[in-house]
Design brief:
Number of helices: 3
Order of helices and strands: HHH
Helix content: over 70%
Radius of gyration: 42 Å
Structural class: mainly alpha
Shape: rod-shaped
Number of strands: 0
Length: about 100
C-alpha cells in the first residue's frame, strides 16, 4: 500500500470543511454548557422547595392538640361554673349586683 497521495485517494481535508467542523463543535459545546447551567439552576430551585416543606412541617407541629374544647363548649362550661359558684355563694348569703 502506498501513501495516500500516491494512489490519488484521500488527501488533506479542505480548509472550508475543517472550519465548518470546528464551528459545529463550538456550537455543541455551548449548548452543553447552557444545558449544564440550566440543570444547576433547577437543582437550586429544588433545594428551595425542600426548605419550604420544612417550614410547613413546623406549622403542622404547632397545630397539634385537637382534643382542646371548642370555643362555644368552653364558654358554656365557663357559664355553668359561674352559675354553680353563684349558687354556692347564695347558700352562704352573698349577693351579686352585676347579674
Amino acid at each position: 500500500m502506498g501513501l495516500s497521495g500516491e494512489t490519488g485517494r484521500g488527501g488533506g481535508r479542505s480548509r472550508k470543511k475543517k472550519k465548518k467542523k470546528k464551528e459545529k463543535k463550538k456550537k455543541k459545546k455551548k449548548k452543553k454548557k447552557e444545558k449544564k447551567k440550566k440543570k444547576k439552576k433547577k437543582k437550586k430551585r429544588k433545594k428551595k422547595k425542600k426548605k419550604k416543606k420544612k417550614k410547613r412541617k413546623k406549622k403542622k407541629k404547632k397545630k397539634k392538640n385537637k382534643n382542646k374544647k371548642r370555643g362555644s363548649y368552653k364558654k358554656d362550661n365557663k357559664r355553668e361554673r359561674r352559675e354553680t359558684m353563684m349558687n354556692r355563694g347564695r347558700a352562704y348569703g352573698y349577693v351579686w349586683t352585676n347579674q
